[in-house]
Automatic annotation (TrEMBL):
InterPro entries: ADH-like_N, ER, GroES-like_sf, NAD(P)-bd_dom_sf, Zinc-ADH_QOR/CCCR. Pfam families: ADH_N, ADH_zinc_N_2. Signal peptide: none annotated. One of its GO terms (molecular function) is oxidoreductase activity. The lineage of its organism: Bacteria, Bacillati, Actinomycetota, Actinomycetes, Kitasatosporales. Transmembrane segments: none annotated. The keyword Heme does not apply. This is NADPH:quinone reductase.
Amino acid sequence: MPEAIAFAAYGGPEVLRPTGIDIPEPDPDQVRVAVRAAGVNPLDWKLRSGSMAAVMPVPLPHIPGSEFAGTVEAVGDGVSSLEPGDEVFGQAPHAYATLLLADLDKLRLRPGDLDVHRAAGLPSAAEAAHRALEELGVAAGETLLVHGAGGAVGNLAVQFALARGAQVVGTAAERVHQRLSRLGATPVRYGEGWPERVAAAAPHGVDAVLDVSGADVLGDSVRLARGGAARVLTLASPQAAQEHGARFSGGGSGLQRTGAALDEALALLRNGTLEVPLHRPFPLAEAAEAHRTGEAGGLDGKLVLTME
């Protein structure tokens, strides 16, 4: 019988419990996927805790998860580009499950040199990074400052921006500076005094700023950016964005960018430059422990649940 992890009430990680699910039938433009791994994201534990209930309530019981990698098990009547047995990855709701339905436009074939765990941890961060760079209009020859460059989204934003021909300065913990340097970015220690360190690292200034850290950096970022507040964007805090006149992107515009984001990541993979750092995978049954680990913070790799 297919299985999933769900919560029937808001609360701590302990509310995550195993549950059975029916075998879903795909719509014409969908496929049914036997999930092999699912990514774990901050939104998952924010929804579970109830802290998002006022703005993003979910029907209870709710199966979390929004990204996965797995094997196509069945295809809808309108699907001709995939067939059972194909290995795919992408975004879909209710990914903490052994079976799910995914829309065709949010899927890509998983290449053999992209392992199932990295593939499962890629889609949501890729979509957020791609969306942010598109909304900022980052172009070749510009200098982009990324706050939180060591995290999952920041890591891909750095790689996407470099591939577009931009120069990148990234604030991050010193333990990930070597990785950022290897990617081609200029790492800067975050914390007090960061504006002076960024100014030293980018003496000609920065054109745009992306914040994925959620730290109190937007005021100084607006002052640093040559484009002013219009070219400072945060994915972390709409309140801080409003306070400083910066931009906020929460992905709710309705413009679907998942496919383009996955294509951008796959281009890096083909070039041999894609890096997706992982924390150790947790079995699906240990989803609560994965949430505890994520909420504790300080991770340098993506959290992933495995069904294998």
